[in-house]
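quick one before i forget lol
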Amino acid sequence: MPFLDRLQRWADERPHHPAVVIAGRRLTWAQLRDGAEARLGATGPITALCQENSVDFALQYAAAVAGERQCAVLDPSWPAGLQADIVAAVRAHAVPGQVPDAAADLLADGQPGSTFLIGLTSGTTSLPKAFTRSRRSWQESFEASIEFFGLRADDVTLAPGPLAASLNLYALSECLYAGSEFQTLASFDVGDIHAAITYDRVTRLVLVPTMLRMLSERGLAGGVDAAGIRTIICAGSKLDARTLQAARRWAPNATIFEYYGASELSFVSGAGLPAGRPPEVGGTGIGRPFPGVEVRILDDAGAQVPDDGAGNICVRSGLVSNGYLWGDDGEALRSFGDWYTVGDQGFLRDGELHILGRRADMILTAGKNVYPHEVELALSALPGVCAAVAAGMPDDIRGQRVVAGVVPAHGGLTATSLRAGLEAILPRDKRPLQYFLLTELPATDRGKVSRTLLLDWIAGHDPRVKNLGA
């Protein structure tokens, strides 16, 4: 069961307690159960749910996964043509479950092994891959994440991103399973989030690193009290030192969790930084495996790599998805027996997983493998650096050379100061050979940092780039 049997329990035990608060509208546990149940008659075996954040989203989502129903969640910001293509693909590929007549109007979970969610890997202009998840895989994920993050029934979780994103959809579902209040907003707004933290008893934040940094820095500047936050959960990329330091100052009583996972794998590993403990500077470690999850590093032939040796991060657990409904190219999700990988590279050291990045991003310089992610984390830990991006530039002698662009937090950054700062935290053969000062990070139209764009800026002498030299 993902969460509907639990929803029935909470509606019986505390019907008038708040369950979901979205954009200022509140649903009690009884209202959520009764409202979702009332929609079952009009909800078919497969739903393509495409809505902005609202209580209507929560009601329709609960109805869309009842019994043996399946739900695909689409981002409403995607172009209309892309949405239509995805809906057509869902209708063509999804196999409806069997919903007995007697169970058609019951708000209850279907069989544990049955598919309930059709997940979409991205929101690009091309058709994203679609994978499926069983009810059992999410129930096991809930049990693992509730234990790992310490979610309590008296927590109030705020996930301020779009419910169409898997991070926030999972947070909503997890809270329904745990009987814990969930909140979100119509859209991301720093002032509204600060107001919710101040007035709505929020104890737990689930968000991506860029959101955390913005909330923390503006919260410190504006005197927003976040002392009541006891848990912060970040996903999407490893937290840089500046974000961690700002979050620690702003929310001094919070345990700050960061974790590694993938839509197709669910949770893999994570670590919590308790209140008062200083962050590790420039580290690549992302904690130990989640409860019930095994992690190994395997080479491309499926052989196990010794500790400290880099290779494919592979997972064996009951949390892994069923695979792709469409778009499987044989590379995005690979298996070595019952070990699965999405191609991320890393290594194990004393039981802790370290992430290096995607193989496609690797820089081969003078026979050495360098992952930009590791360089960027080290640079972001230096005083005066707001953000950093690294890439491999063609080099006649080395094949490629490592170059880095930095966005300064204040003036005075030089190539000499950057080189000196990296001496203690990054091996010599991984240090950039050339530095560039940036007015902003090079990013795509969808806001994703682009290393290719950095190289284009450098080659085109873009005014947003200033060469600091070697």
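fyi The mean pLDDT is 90.
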